Amino acid sequence: MPSQLESLKKHSLVVADSGDIDAVARWKPQDATTNPSLLLASAQDPRYRAFLDADLDRMAVNFGREILKHVAGRVSTEVDARLSFDTEKSIEKARKFISLYEKAGTSRERILIKLASTWEGIRAAEKLEREGIRCNLTLLFSFAQAVACAEAGVTLISPFVGRIYDWYKAAKKVDDLPLEEDPGVASVVRIYNYYKRHGYKTQVMGASFRKTGQILNLAGCDLLTIAPDLLEKLAASQAPVEKVLSVEKAKSMNIAKVSLDEKAFRWEHNEDAMATEKLAEGIRKFDADARKLEKVVASALAAAPA
Ligand code: E4P
User: Which residue is closest in CA terms to ligand 1's atom 8?
Assistant: First the structure.
């Protein structure tokens, strides 16, 4: 009997959500994603001491290149959260990452530049895509963010499941939400069906999972990025995996197409209290972890210079 992980791989491209190089090597996913919080964890791990660099961009590239040794596809490298509201600086940072990767011999086809799905981040991605720099729009919580990303022609979006689930659990003061009522899963289903129904090329990568049921209820999504502990659980189970999402089903649905200019985007996103709070909090948290990372790296390098 195949494991759930093997069965899931027949329906969706499985990605490792980790900065832990050994974990990526173990799971041999197609792609891998990192974020500032994952890099903070890895930077404190003595196994990865050799990749530390006082220049955090260089360090992110060091980790990215090492991860790429274990995946056939792409790695996502995230732009500093402080630039989330600055289109021009986000573009500069993305170009810097690509230049560092290319100088080290890694082609841009293997890199996804991760940017927060703010209006400014989406505009940066639109421009970068025209230069052949592929983007992964992250911290995506609202349908408005998804519509704007598709209209901008970005390569990939990462709609978050777990953080939406966290917000609704806290709002409803409950310990769990059943899968059939899970608003994080429902958000990805809605976005996937909308994209496929209207023929958008932007790929949907479900992210931020809290339990395997959330992942399995999205089987068929283009990609799913999964943390090592959940990959482990999927590998340990042999229960059957049904394909839930499909292009054919989506194409037969009656879903109206929408278009959002900046004012409409801001209005629609702001109408969604969960998305507004989670996007703001996500930017604050990634920034806080990046600042911690600066300190961790500076003290590690001071204690034992490379
Ligand atoms: C991946 O791209 C995201 O950064 C990640 O899935 C976020 O997960 P979290 O909500 O568990 O931090």
Answer: 208
Q: What is the mean pLDDT of the chain?
A: 97
Q: Output the six-digit token pair for 240.
A: 């059957």
Question: Which of 139, 160, 205 to mutate for ligand 1's pocket (most ligand atoms within 8 Å of CB)?
Answer: 160
CA 73, 76, 80 angle in degrees (round to 5)?
Answer: 165
Query: For the segment 166-182, what is each residue's pLDDT rounded down to a tens digit?
Result: 999 999 999 999 999 99
Instruction: Looking at the CA of residue 227, tell me the nearest atom of ligand 1.
Output: 6
- The pLDDT tens digits of the residues spanning 122-137 come to 999 999 999 999 999 9
Which of 9, 93, 114, 278 is catalytic? The answer is 114
What mean pLDDT comes out for the span 145-172?
98
Instruction: Kindly report the protein residue whose alpha carbon is nearest to atom 6 of ligand 1.
Output: 208
The alpha carbon of 33 and the centre of ligand 1 are apart by a number of angstroms equal to 9
pTM of the model: 0.96
DSSP 245-273: --HHHHHTS--------HHHHHHHHHH-H
CB of 251 closer than 8 Å to CB of 107 = no
Q: Can you tell me whether residue 156 is helix, strand or coil? A: strand
Rounded to an integer, the average pLDDT of 209-222 is: 98
Q: Are 146 and 257 in contact (CB under 8 A)?
A: no
User: Is 9 in the active site?
Assistant: no
